[in-house]
Request: fold
Amino acid sequence: MYKLYLEKNITSKDLLAKVLKENNIHDKIVYNEYGKPYLKNNAIYFNISHSGIYTALVIANTEVGIDIERIQMPKNALLHICTEEERKLINNADDFTLMWVKKESYVKYLGMGISYGLKNVDTIKIKDFIIKKVGNYYISIYGKNLK
Reply:
């Protein structure tokens, strides 16, 4: 189970504070060795991402990762983040951005961020992504058994 919060023109810190207050959560935020934030004494998990005017936050009852990106096709990025099989599936900026948000939400779910290596994430083999499109942005949420 998860809940997505998406707001314009708000910082990650302010959106998190607002959502925690709305849900009556007053736990201290701690960080793992890669910088992923957690609630110290709570069984609620969260993750945050921002791009352009949007900040996206997801809370869940299990480990979770989220990414939001404006649809674009950065030059040379295909070689650095995609497997050979993934590169064959990318025909335009939509395809690229969708693959990017999947990769990033997955490594954030792992708690390691991009230090894990985006090329190590094969979005063809990994399933369970929840994908949303808002205007010119894609959002990917990754977690086990999210509904």
In short: Residues 108 and 147 are 19 Å apart (CA to CA). Strands lie at 2-8, 29-31, 37-39, 45-51, 54-60, 65-70, 129-134, 137-142. The chain has a mean pLDDT of 93. The two ends are 5 Å apart (CA to CA).
